[in-house]
């Protein structure tokens, strides 16, 4: 790994072997960004490869799967320990616009108590990473203010929080809340974090111009490979908040007969419930 002098901004990324190529492209997109430390949290059950990052730490899987919540906590703690005052979380899938870190840092100066979210563009297969400016198409599900604007979210907007690109000050992080490490495997921990922000009265803000670009990779919709995780984590979420997260995926699983509502909870319709034929429901 590389070694830089202490920096006041840090990018924190979680990664495992299937996304190592995406991660290397992300790190390349951050080259030349001033006053920046890159921190990779390796979440696989193997040893991380040599990576061009300033810090690489390991948070191996738990009994139920990848420990995304614990990994984000560990990465943020490392950033604070190394002196960063602005923490940027960026999924390994995502490329950073050249001014993403600067946009987040400016918003953090103006709104030091807020958690900040920039717009995300989902790239098509074969997209040229050298042409990101021309490919910018923020996902329509979330606000995307004009560059330079910061818009505070309403109470109903916290459910729109995505952990794939967000930022906050080190003071905001150390004051809490943290990600709940009872969540293991896929799904729910980011919405739980967002609802904790809302409960604590912490502002959520949309940051215009802090663009991230999600690199294409095949996925299934709904994510059949994560069905058990979604049910387990959804149940944990519902116990705290009185409602289930991931509504769209839950509805899709129910429509396909994979889950049923039994005694006030979603459960697998049968012990051997399996995904449909991929020829009928191919990855998007």
Task: Outline the structure in words.
The chain has 8 helices and 13 strands. The strands form 3 sheets. The protein has an 8-stranded mixed beta sheet with strand order 3-2-1-4-9-6-10-8, with helices on both faces. It has helices at residues 20-29, 68-81, 100-110, 132-135, 170-175, 189-200, 227-241, 247-255; strands at 9-15, 36-42, 55-58, 86-90, 94-96, 115-117, 120-122, 150-152, 165-169, 204-207, 212-214, 259-262, 265-268. It has 2 domains: 9-214, Spore Coat Polysaccharide Biosynthesis Protein SpsA, Chain A; 219-284, no CATH class. β1 (9-15), α1 and β2 (36-42) form a beta-alpha-beta unit. Mean pLDDT is 93; it is low at 277-284. With 284 residues, it is an alpha/beta fold. The two termini are 35 Å apart.
Short summary of the structure?
The chain has about 280 residues and is α/β, with parallel strands linked by helices. Helix content is about 30%, strand content about 20%. The longest helix has 15 residues, at about 225-240.
Mean pLDDT: 93
Order of helices and strands: EHEEHEEHEEHEEHHEEHHEE
Strand content: 15-25%
Computed CA radius of gyration, to the nearest angstrom: 19 Å
Overall number of structural domains: 2
How much helix, percentage-wise, in residues?
Answer: 25-40%
Shape: globular
| Terminal residue distance | 35 Å
Low-confidence parts: 277-284
